[in-house]
Amino acid sequence: MYILIDGIKLNAKIDMPKGAEAKCPLCIIIHGFTGHMEERHIIAVQEAMNEVGVATLRVDMYGHGSSDGEFRDHTLYKWLTGAMAVVDYARSLDFVTDIYLCGHSQGGLTSMLLAGMERDKIKALLPLSPALCILTGAREGNLLGQEFDPYNIPDELVNWDGRALSGNYIRAAQTLHIEEAIDRYDKPVLIVHGDEDEAVPYKDSVVAADRYKDCMLVTIEGDTHCYDNHLDKVVYAVKDFMRQQLNN
Ligand code: FER
């Protein structure tokens, strides 16, 4: 299934809860940088949602997975306008009651920025190990473990998998400010983060959780960026949070 945005096809997949009623809530799930919708931790969240009676809409973002667009050309702006089209698509589905939003890493950052824009449409927000360091790193001249001049932006960075990433990725990220997005969203938020995350600083989530008006931070002790050690604890936290939301 594809969601069309300005001529770009975004690969998307809906999974319904078991024994689904005529109508139910839906959670949009967004993967991270270089990721896709079939990653182990993305599927784990999809299944957790389905188990508590929430349909899921997983999406491959611009330049990722089976969606259109080149990896080199993706920016947070493209991910954000794509994600807005995904919200519009979710709203067009007859069976959908409330819309929830979840994202991992760069998808978690995207979900937080998007929630600031779609605060009237997103019932609750679940950023998983959100990569807030992308914004500060772009401004300070440090991304992908590489230093660069943040004023004279290089035409390309080379990603850890050898693929090129356009300097426009940096230009876009430099202009985005997470504090503003956090302040615009006052509905419930669950942040989940492993305290041994090797890719994205855990402490950024502590600061973000403190800034949100209504946020719970679940720390996964001894876990990595993609929850190699305790994915079950992530699943437990997501289900627990969602059950609370569904009972309200
Ligand atoms: C970086 C650190 C983390 C970066 C991207 C990420 C582009 C994103 C990680 C993810 O989404 O899993 O320096 O630079």
Can you describe this structure?
The mean pLDDT is 97. By secondary structure, the chain is of the alpha/beta class. Helix 1 (40-51) packs parallel to helix 8 (231-247). It has 8 helices and 12 strands. An 8-stranded mixed β-sheet has the order 1-2-4-3-5-6-11-12, sandwiched between helices. Strands 7-8 form a two-stranded antiparallel ribbon. The protein has one domain (2-247): Alpha/Beta hydrolase fold, catalytic domain (Rossmann fold, 3-Layer(aba) Sandwich). Helix content is 37%, strand content 25%. The protein has helices spanning 40-51, 76-92, 106-117, 133-140, 167-174, 178-184, 202-211, 231-247; strands spanning 2-5, 8-15, 24-30, 55-59, 96-104, 122-128, 142-143, 146-147, 156-158, 164-166, 189-194, 215-220. It binds 3-(4-hydroxy-3-methoxyphenyl)-2-propenoic acid (FER). 3-(4-hydroxy-3-methoxyphenyl)-2-propenoic acid binds at residues 32-33, 105-106, 131, 133-134, 137, 143-144, 199-200. Residues 32-33, 105-106, 131, 133-134, 137, 143-144, 199-200 line the site of 3-(4-hydroxy-3-methoxyphenyl)-2-propenoic acid.
The fraction of residues assigned to DSSP E strands is 25-35%
Count of helical regions:
8
Across the major sheet, the strand order is: 1-2-4-3-5-6-11-12
The shape is globular
What is the CATH level 1 assignment? Alpha Beta
Find the CATH topology: Rossmann fold
Order of helices and strands: EEEHEHEHEHEEEEHHEHEH
CATH architecture: 3-Layer(aba) Sandwich
Helix content: 25-40%
Q: In angstroms, what is the radius of gyration?
A: 17 Å
Strand element count: 12
The overall pLDDT average reads 97
Overall SS class = alpha/beta
CATH superfamily: Alpha/Beta hydrolase fold, catalytic domain
Give the N-terminus to C-terminus distance in angstroms.
Answer: 32 Å
Unreliably modeled segments: none
Q: What ligand molecules are bound, each kind once?
A: 3-(4-hydroxy-3-methoxyphenyl)-2-propenoic acid
Characterize the largest beta sheet: strand count, sense, and whether it forms a barrel. Answer: 8 strands, mixed
Number of domains: 1
